[in-house]
Specification:
6-stranded antiparallel sheet; two-stranded antiparallel sheet; 4 helices; 26% strand
Length: 148
């Protein structure tokens, strides 16, 4: 069962923008970004799915966490952030796909939230594809730079 949004510091407004960090893929792994004609650089559907160890995909609210801070958090966790990207999407877009966004603050990231399925829309391959098409890359970490 998805976390109850009422028990997690209120509801996330449909006007808010949420962010997801996209680390550079390891050799042989699927790409995390894609150039879409007429749109520009977006996330791939693969990069939006829950990561290993996640039940629901982790995002962060731009209102509380900057794209640069997301990259810093990854570096603090020991991740190689060279060439990492951060994508953004409006909560309204997520909800138009019949998914929901619920707050899930952590000590390190007060803006942490989750995209969760609803009874009207479970997670499916086509939903990830549609969501990926709506994202935009809003930050890219230079290849030779760490976040610290």
């Amino acid at each position: 069962m998805p976390p109850d949004s009422d028990s997690r510091a209120g509801v996330v407004s449909p006007d808010e923008i949420i962010l997801r960090r996209l680390l550079s893929p390891k050799p042989g792994a699927p790409a995390t970004t894609q150039i879409r004609p007429g749109i520009g650089l977006t996330a791939t559907s693969f990069s939006l799915r829950p990561r290993r160890g996640e039940q629901y995909p982790s995002w962060s609210r731009l209102l509380l966490t900057s794209p640069e801070r997301l990259v810093e958090l990854a570096a603090e966790d020991g991740c190689d952030v060279r060439g990492a990207h951060v994508c953004a999407v409006a909560v309204q877009v997520v909800r138009e796909l019949r998914l929901d966004v619920v707050p899930d603050p952590t000590p390190a990231d007060h803006g942490h939230c989750l995209i969760v399925p609803t009874t009207r829309q479970p997670f499916t391959d086509i939903i990830w594809k549609r969501l990926a098409q709506k994202t935009r890359i809003v930050h890219t970490q230079p290849d030779g730079a760490s976040a610290a």
